Amino acid sequence: MIHVVGNVAPGRVEFGEPIESLFGMVHREIKKADGALCQLERIFATGGGLQYRDHNTSNSMVDPGNVKSLAAAGFNIASHAGNRCFDWGPKAGRYTMMVKCVAGRNGVRKVSFLPGYTNQRAEPEFLSRNDPRFEEVLRYVEPGCEKLGTTLSMEGEEAIVFNPTGKQEA
Questions:
Q1: Backbone phi, then psi, for 71, in 5-degree steps?
Q2: From CA 111, how far away is CA 142, in angstroms rounded?
Q3: What is the mean pLDDT of each run of 10 residues along the chain (170 residues)?
Q4: Where a domain ends, among 20, 53, 87?
Q5: Domain that holds residue 53
Q6: Are residues 121 and 133 in the same domain?
């Protein structure tokens, strides 16, 4: 069974509310699923300047600590609504990544990402470690990792966010 939820806009940290409260009334049902996907409507970022838009975007950037509410609810996959990615300027929109999650019957075994950059044609490209933008993306992501209580480690071209065994995957 898979649950899919759209238009998720976590913002608990900013209001001093408990992280777990976002899906407090439905998290038990979400956790029954073999997989749960949510479509994010917010940018998890700590910087950038709001760009002009003809619609209200005042709440589109939220503290990266809010991602904990997704885990507390039982979501194990999140996609991002790209219509908000440039609301907070080029930095928030240019840095990107492909998240890799290795899971099995006993849960998540590893979460990593491939750092990327959105080029002038709005096309994402994955970066090699010898590209200076690779380190820029890592530095941009690190404050969010700290708020989640994790640190980045490297395995080839992948930035490892969570690997309880410390073993490399085949």
A1: -65, -40
A2: 15
A3: 71 78 80 81 71 53 81 82 56 73 73 82 81 91 78 89 61
A4: 87
A5: 1-87
A6: yes
